[in-house]
Write a structure and sequence with these properties.
Length: 134
């Protein structure tokens, strides 16, 4: 059986255009998000994941696009969000949580794929995007 995993992630920008990142125990700094559960709306999934991982409630302000990881059979749905509250909170999935400038975020994120997804999400003129990674 061919099984796809759908994830939903967000670039959450505060009023200073800083980006919400969380520090994953394995992957390091990354954008918040996670796997869409069975019978769950993709948009609601990202709101839930951001809240679970960072403590922040968000409003979705737009759909950015899709990145597909061919070898892992994953499709990542990307959204732009804005924080409703300021209560940063860590979880078992996030060792640290904070807002960073674009420059800081690009230095902190180790994965080139994650950096590319971030830049694509910020480039509103090219939404929706579609990109494929191996």
């Amino acid at each position: 059986m061919n099984k796809f995993i759908i994830t939903s992630g967000a670039v959450v920008l505060d009023e200073h255009k800083r980006i919400l990142l969380k520090k994953d125990p394995n992957r390091g700094w990354e954008l918040p998000g996670g796997i869409v559960e069975e019978n769950e709306n993709i948009k609601n999934a990202v709101i839930r994941e951001v809240k679970e991982e960072t403590g922040i409630n968000i409003d979705i302000i737009g759909f950015c696009g899709v990145s597909q990881e061919l070898e892992r059979n994953i499709c990542n749905m990307w959204w732009l969000g804005t924080p409703i509250n300021r209560h940063l909170k860590t979880s078992k999935e996030s060792l640290e949580v904070d807002f960073f400038s674009i420059e800081e975020a690009l230095k902190l994120i180790r994965s080139d794929d994650f950096k590319e997804e971030l830049l694509l999400c910020l480039d509103k003129n090219n939404h929706p995007f579609f990109i494929t990674f191996k």
